[in-house]
Amino acid sequence: MHEMANIVIVGGGAGGMEIATKLGHQLGRKGKARVTLIDCAESHIWKPLLHEVATGALDIGIDAISYRGHAASHGYHFQQGAMTDIDREAKQVILAPINDDKGRELLPARRIDYDYLVIAIGSIANDFNITGVREHCVFLDSTEQAMEIRTMLLNKFMRYASHHQLDDKIKIAVVGAGATGVEMSAEMHHAVEQLRGFGYKIDSSLLEITLIEADERILPKVEKEEISASVAKELTSIGVKVMTSTRINQVTEEGLHTSEGEFIQSDMVIWSTGVKAPDFLKEIGGLESNHINQVMVQQNMQTTRDPAILAIGDCAACPQEDGSWVPPRGQSARQMALMTADNIKLLLAGKPASNNYVYKDLGALVNLSKFHTVGNLMSFIGGGIMVEGKIARFVYTSLYRRHLIELHGPIKGTLLMFAKGISRIVHPHLKLH
Description:
Layout: E1 5-10, H1 14-28, E2 33-39, E3 43-44, H2 50-55, H3 60-63, E4 65-66, H4 67-74, E5 77-80, E6 83-87, E7 92-95, E8 98-99, E9 105-107, E10 110-113, E11 116-119, H5 133-136, E12 138-139, H6 143-163, E13 170-175, H7 179-196, E14 207-212, H8 225-237, E15 241-243, E16 248-251, E17 255-258, E18 263-265, E19 268-271, E20 295-296, E21 302-303, E22 306-311, E23 316-317, H9 330-348, E24 363-368, E25 372-377, E26 385-388, H10 390-408, H11 410-426
Parallel strand pairs: 1-2, 1-11, 2-5, 11-22, 12-19, 13-14, 13-19, 14-15, 20-23
Antiparallel strand pairs: 3-4, 6-7, 7-10, 8-9, 16-17, 17-18, 21-22, 24-25, 25-26
Helix pairs in contact: 1-9, 10-11
C-alpha cells in the first residue's frame, strides 16, 4: 500500500493557516496526504490586529483561533514547537524541546518527517544592530509580545491615574511609522479614552506619544503621498507628535538618541521599524538566504537549493520579472499561500510546480482606531483609488472577515462575525486582565 505523503507547514500566521486549511480540505480529509502545521503558539491571531491586543481593545480569549481545534475540524494535524533546523538529507524538521515556565521539560526535541515542507514563519522588526534596541525596546511581532505591551501600558495608565502629578505625562515613543506604528499610536489614545469609562482620572492629554520615522514621510511604503499627509494630519490632531527624517543611533533606559544629537525622553519605546526574517532562518539547512535572513525562492515559491522545500510571505525573497522583489505585505503572503497550495498538489501528482507568483499591489489601508480610516485600492490600475472614512473602514474590516471565511468557510465564518459583534456589545470595550 502506498504511504501517504507528508506535507509540513511551519508557521501558523495567515499564510500558513490558509495553506493548511486548503490542503486539509482537499488532501487531508480525503486521505491523499498527511498535512501538519507547526507553530510555537497554541492559537492564531491575525497579525494586523496585534496592536489592538497590545492596548486591550481586542480580547484574544474571543478572537484567537485554537490551532488544535481548527486542525481537528479541517483535516490537518497540529504540532506545537519551534523549528531549530532542517535535516534535508533525512527530510525532517527539527523542533526544540518545550519547557514550562519553571524550565521543566514538557516535550523533548522532536523530528517531523516531510515530503514537502513550506516555511511560512513571517518576519520580525529589524533592530539594524542599533545599540540598546534589544535591551530597552518592546516589539510587536507576536501575540506574546503584544500581551507584554498591554500589561506594561495598562500598569502605567493605572498607576498614573492614582499617583500622577499634574505636570507629568506618560511618554511613549514609537519607532517606525509604517502601518503598525501608525495604528499603534492611534490605538493607545483610544485606550486612554476607554479607561476613563472604568473610573480612572486620565485622559489623552496626559499621554505623550512620539512617532519617529527615518524616512521623509510616514507610511513610506504607501505610494500615494496624499494618504501619508492625511494620516499625519489626523495623528497630529489627536496629540501624536510626528517626527520624520529622524534616525535613532542609540536607545537607553531613559530614552532615544538621534543621529542629529537630539535626545527623546521616553518611559516606553515600541520598536516597529524594518523587516527581517528571524535570525535562525539564515542559511537554515544549507538553504540560500539574503542579508535579512529571507529564504531565497523561485517565482513558484520553491527554494533555490531544494525543490521539496518552499517558502512564502515575509520570510521568503521572491524575485519578479522586472528584477524587483515581492514586498513583505499581508496581501502578498495570502496570494502566495493559495498559489503554493496549488503547486504542492501539482508536485504530488508528479507534475512541475508551474504556477508563478506575480505581485499586484491591491492597495493599502490604515485604520487609526475610531478616529480615521484611509487608504488606496487597486494600486496596480493607474495609481489606484483613494478612499477614506466609512468606506475605507468597511473595506478594512472586510479584510479580516475574508480571512475568517477562508479559515472557517462561509457559513461558520459569517456566524463567527456575528458572534464577535455581539460579544463586543455585551463585554467591556477594553480588556484589563
